[in-house]
Structures are given as C-alpha cells and as structure tokens.
Specification:
Helix content is 19%, strand content 38%. It folds into 2 domains: 138 residues, no CATH class; 83 residues, no CATH class. The chain is α+β, with helices and mostly antiparallel strands. A hairpin with a 5-residue loop joins β12 and β13.
Length: 238
C-alpha cells in the first residue's frame, strides 16, 4: 500500500472512531466537544421556561369565578398557582397580551407567566400574561414530552451526526440529538416548511413526542420523533 492510500485510510478510521466516541458519550460531553470542534458555542439564547398548555373554563357561574382559563406547565406534574399552591392545573380569571390581534383560539401553547390580580369582591384570582403563542401543526393530541429543538451548527461526514440540541421545556435538561423526525405529524406543507425554516435559520422549533435510538454508519444515534409541533403566531414571524 503506497503512502497516499495509508494516509487516506488513517483519516477515514479516525473519523469513524470519533463518530463512535460521540455516539457513545454522554450528552454533555457530546455537546461540548462537538461544538468546540466546529468553533461553535455551547450557550444558546433560547429560554425553555414559562411554557403552558391550557384549556378554556366552560363552567357556568358568575365571572370572574368562571370564564377564564386553566393553565398547566408542560413537562411538570404540578403547576404553581397564584395562591402559591402546587396543583395539577391553575385557574386564572383573565389573560393579558400586548398583541392587538391576539386570538386564544388560534394557539395551542402559551409562553408567559401567572401573576397576581385582585378582582373587586372576589379576591386574587390571577391573570396570565402572554409572552408568545404557538399554533399546533394539526389537531392531533400533544406528545409525551415537550421540547425545543435548535440546530447547533455541527457538520459531519458520517452518521449519526449530533447536529441539534434538544431542550426540555420548563427544565434545565439538554441533550444532543442526531435526527428530527416530523413525518408522524402529517402536517400541511406550509407548516412543515415553517418548521424547517426555523431549524435552518437558527430558530427553535417547539415539538412534542418521544426520543428513539437509531443506528448510523458509525454507531448509535438519538432521534426525536414528533407527534406534534408548534409554530409561533404571536408575535408574528417577520
């Protein structure tokens, strides 16, 4: 074997070995090492806190005791309500939004916070202050876990390639993943295009679903298989 072929063979073997190490390493090691190798940053501006699912209050009683919404912090068994107690979900009597055309019926997920508000004659029933609203891609139910997914800039020449960061909403948990599977959502092409644009342009795609292990050329990968994803409608994308 001539010298040139030996060099090529050694290069290929080193790439495969590196990929195997990345595939078998812990999430934290993969994130740090891979981003350093690609001159990227481990930090992200994405804030995973303050995400809530909600349901309208259809009870028939005097307002503001009824007629507001029930909110629930996603990925959490309990949510801290305006009275300081932890409950499965919290009632708030009203919603505040700085978006003039805000329409609660068009969104599935909210980002914001529960704040105190005293209603004359009824006490502190709370208010939900909306920071952002997200439309679900379909009418399907939400998945098991809620995450934010962001392209981390890693570029590979083999698989698996851990090129995305997965942030667990309302948590400090971060893991790196090698695949994002949106096919099970069966979303319209327009919304699927918006999702792909977010990932391609340094945005964060919100989704719900599960993680599944995959097999790549150089070892095991980790995919996020979405059963639902969410695109921002408030504030509107530029």
């Amino acid at each position: 074997m001539n010298t040139y072929k030996k060099i090529v063979l050694l290069f290929v073997l080193s790439v495969l070995f590196t990929a195997r190490v990345l595939a078998d390493s812990s999430t934290e090691s993969v994130v740090t090492l891979a981003k350093q190798l690609n001159n990227g940053s481990v930090d992200s501006s994405f804030q995973p806190s303050g995400y809530f699912s909600f349901r309208p209050d259809w009870r028939k009683c005097v307002s503001p005791l009824c007629g507001g919404i029930f909110v629930k912090a996603v990925n959490q068994k309990l949510t801290r309500c305006v009275n300081g107690q932890l409950q499965a979900e919290c009632y708030v009597a009203s919603i505040k939004s700085n978006f003039p055309d805000f329409d609660l019926s068009t969104v599935r997920l909210l980002q914001g916070e529960i704040k105190s508000k005293v209603y004359k004659g009824f006490g502190n029933l709370g208010i939900f202050v909306v920071k952002a609203g997200f439309q679900a891609a379909t009418t399907a139910v939400d998945g098991k876990i809620f995450v934010g997914i962001e392209n981390n800039g890693i570029v590979c020449i083999t698989t698996p390639c851990f090129s995305a960061d997965q942030y667990s909403l309302n948590s400090k948990k971060i893991r790196t993943i090698s695949d994002i599977d949106l096919t099970s959502v069966n979303a319209p092409d327009t919304l699927l295009g918006q999702a792909n644009d977010l990932l391609a342009n340094q945005g964060v795609l919100l989704a719900s679903g599960v993680n599944q292990q995959t097999e790549g050329v150089a070892g095991k990968g980790l995919a996020f298989v979405a059963t639902q994803f969410y695109v921002p409608v408030f504030p509107k994308a530029p």
